[in-house]
Amino acid sequence: MDDEAWKNTALLSDFVTFRPDNGKTVSAAYQTTEKVVYDDAAIYISATMLDPDPTNIPQEFANRDNFSQADFFLVTINPNDDGQNPFEFIVQSTGNQADAKISNGEEDLNWNAVWKSAVAITPEGWQVEMEIPYRAIRFSNSPVQSWGFNFHRKLERLNENHSWTFIDNSIGRWTQYDGLIEGFENIKPPTRLNLYPYASTTMTTFENTTDFDWSAGMDVKYGLTENFTLDATLIPDFSQVGFDDVVLNLGPFEQQFSEQRQFFTEGTELFNKGRLFYSRRIGAAPIDQFNVVGSLSPEEEIIDSPGKVTMLNAIKISGRTKNGLGIGFFNAITEKTEATIKNITTGTIRKSVTNPFTNYNITVLDQQFNQNSSIALINTNVTRDGKFRDANVTALTWHIETKDSKYNADGSFKLSNISDDINYPNTGYTFDNSFGKNAGHWNWEVGYNFENKEFNPNDFGILFSNNQQSIYGNISWRTLQPTKKFNRYRFNFYNQARFQHASGIYTGHFAGVNFNAQTKERFSFGANLNYGSENKDFFEPRQGTTSGIYFLQPQRWNVNGWISTNSQKLFQLNANGYHSSFPNNPKTGYGFSIVPRYRFNNQFSLRYRLNFNNTKDDQGYVDEVDNNIVFGIRDRKNYTNTISGKYSFGINSSISLSFRHYWEAVNYTNFYNLNTVGGLDPNTNYTSENVNFNNWNLDLNYIWQFAPGS
Question: Residue 214 burial by CB count (10 A; 0-12/13-18/19+): exposed, middle or buried?
Fold first, then answer.
């Protein structure tokens, strides 16, 4: 730090505690100082972090954008100083990097930039130096600029977080507390062009047949202006995507999977406004709108039918003006997918479209103001070639806080339209709004929402249930400063009454109370008690919510608890358990999860997870026979065993292994017909096989970051 570049530069110091003793001055033994300089190409940041015991600074290795048992230094840079959208750059004591874009206080660690850093352990503590090129951030082209900054330090050994400017944890978001560094002069936004070429080879073996394939393509990032960026993926390659955690699904709704493809996780905060974007729709299984299987003649059979749709390309344009207007445009195209059908009598071959050539589009306008509020308009559109269904959804969303950030209104209005679809009405709508307080010890929220019976965003989004309305509320109390025995604890109570929207029928009432805490020794624990009244379930019978047919779900009481031991120790244990009882009903359920983790050293760790669930006398839909809706009484039991391990050769190279086995058995004891008042009448004629479902996954992964960004 005695380099000539740092001489005669202002020293930034006087850190205060952010957690757990919010606002407490940091002792001289653990103070942090930093300097900021700049030139025509980049910003340079140096920091010195004092520690009287530097030999015990935690230094567990981790991959990029992952956190481990290590101290870190973090800087947020907000060129617009808007209190809501800073860039974040982190260096751990091992030298490992992480970076993120922040939106409304939420970190998007999928965002990646190319920048440089280095660390050194010294007799006084440790030091870090960072070079952040201007192409990594977005700022206006003004002669003199003032940028929002804050600096954070994590001391893992002491369980403390420090910050350069005081962040009051009783009110507002942490991004609203930036300091201001003034006098950046004559810096110009550079041309921002990044090319990410990629290539892969694959070998697939199935039933003693081995196939080889290869692919190549490129991702492009281009700065259209100083504030807007174009992202494009050409000939997409998703060969590095891991497996989905598939389970046996006997319920009325689809299983939702998390997104693993980087293009759809990085920089998508604008497109997630209104929760209308479920990116797994792109490249999913064909919609098969006209039921190719059901339309076959007795002489025909399907000899080939692709299980997923191929994406051809996708682009994103996003950014935010200095006045706080965010603009986003997303477009993706998938190719036509066909099933191959053979006439077994004549030998002729024909093709049938299971998914047409399809265009997916999102447009977003998001105006932020007052450093804490925003109003957004978002439209999603799916256009399919030919006589297939098209879908359009528009939403207006708002989050408005008072100037002092104590009170807020949060809500949305959405409108969906489906054309060329004989199975659903065309237009649906939904509304949600709540008022709340989010400051101090006591916080509360009250609200009302509904989805009408025609609302359907599922061509591009995901919604499990419509034709519902609810009145809801919650109230909570939290600590703001540690006590003699606890770092923090919190109580929360929620209450909700539900009705069917179209008919206004009361369907049920739900309430609960929960508690969570962390002790001074970093032992975390919590418990929940939940209640559900007898409720009318219009979804389980699979007849549509307007049919008037429902199943009367029994009254339910559920209690669960969880623990998590100190993660800094070599051995850590996470565990939870629950028990559900149903008064006046034979159904019962219980389950638990145990997750031990052992860290052998700073390079090698193993984690095991066991999940177990057991439900006796479960009641659910099975079949429809002779106009009867058949329900079964069944015992359900499932295990999930997962073991994962990672060995880090350094901060840029690691190998990991993940193995998962999921097993569920379903044993039917009796069958019933659903009656007109939601009850069950005996059916002695129906028979059904029990279910034994297994799913095995093995994922072996080696990563080498041989150059920044590659």
Answer: exposed
For position 118, which CATH number holds?
A: 2.60.40.1190
**Residue 446 belongs to a domain:** no
- Among residues 165, 185, 205, the one where a domain terminates is 185
Buried b (16+ CB within 10 A) or exposed e, 547-575: eebbbbbbbbebebbbebbeeeeeebebb
Tokens representing 352?
Answer: 């049938």
Residue 692 domain-assigned? yes
For 610-648, the pLDDT digits (tens) are 999 999 999 999 999 999 999 999 999 999 999 999 999
273, HSE (Cβ side, Cα atoms, 13 Å):
32
Q: Could you please report the per-residue DSSP string of 447-470? A: EEEEE-TT---TTTS--S--SEEE
Burial (0-12, 13-18, 19+ Cβ within 10 Å), 427 = middle
Look-up of token digits 């073991």:
643
Query: E strand or H helix at 262, and its extent?
Result: helix 262-265
Give the pLDDT score at 513: 98
Q: Is residue 237 very low, low, confident or very high in pLDDT (cuts 50, 70, 90)?
A: low
pLDDT at 239 over 70: no
Prediction pTM value: 0.91
CA–CA distance, 662 with 251 (Å, rounded to integer) = 17
Instruction: Report the C-alpha gap between 311 and 333 in whole angstroms.
Output: 6
Torsion of CA 77, 82, 85, 90, to 10 degrees: 20
Tell me the residue range of the domain where 54 lies.
4-185
Mean pLDDT in residue range 310-335: 93
More confident residue, 530 or 310: 530
CB under 8 Å to 618, separation ≥6 — which residues?
587, 589, 633, 634, 635, 636
Number of H helices, E strands in the chain: 1, 40
Which of 142, 160, 185 corresponds to the end of one domain? 185
Q: Give the mean pLDDT of the chain.
A: 93
DSSP 435: E
In sequence order, what E strands does 293-387 have? 300-304, 311-320, 325-334, 337-343, 349-355, 358-369, 373-384
What is the predicted pLDDT for the residue at 240?
Answer: 62
Domain assignment of residue 18, yes or no:
yes
Over the stretch 415-470, which tens digit does the pLDDT of each residue have?
Answer: 999 987 565 668 999 999 999 999 999 999 999 999 999 999 999 999 999 999 99
DSSP secondary-structure letter at 314? E
Asked if residue 452 belongs to a domain, the reply is no
Q: Which of 596, 595, 597 is nearest to 611 (CA)?
A: 595
* pLDDT for the residue 4: 87
How does pLDDT run across 506-520, given as a tens digit for each residue?
A: 999 999 999 999 999
User: Token digits for 560?
Assistant: 């669960």
Rounded to the nearest angstrom, the gap between the alpha carbon of residue 81 and the centroid of all alpha carbons in its chain is 26
Q: Which amino acid is at 577?
A: G
Where b means 16+ CB within 10 Å and e means fewer, 77-103 reads bbbbbbbbbbbbbbbbbbbbbbbbbbb
pLDDT of 293 higher than 90: no
193-204 residue pLDDT tens: 988 888 888 888
Sheet of strand 32-38, all strands in order from the earlier edge strand to the far edge: 32-38, 42-50, 125-133, 116-122
Number of domains observed in the structure of the chain: 2
- Tell me the three state secondary structure of residue 502: coil
| Joined tokens for residue 687 | 């028979």
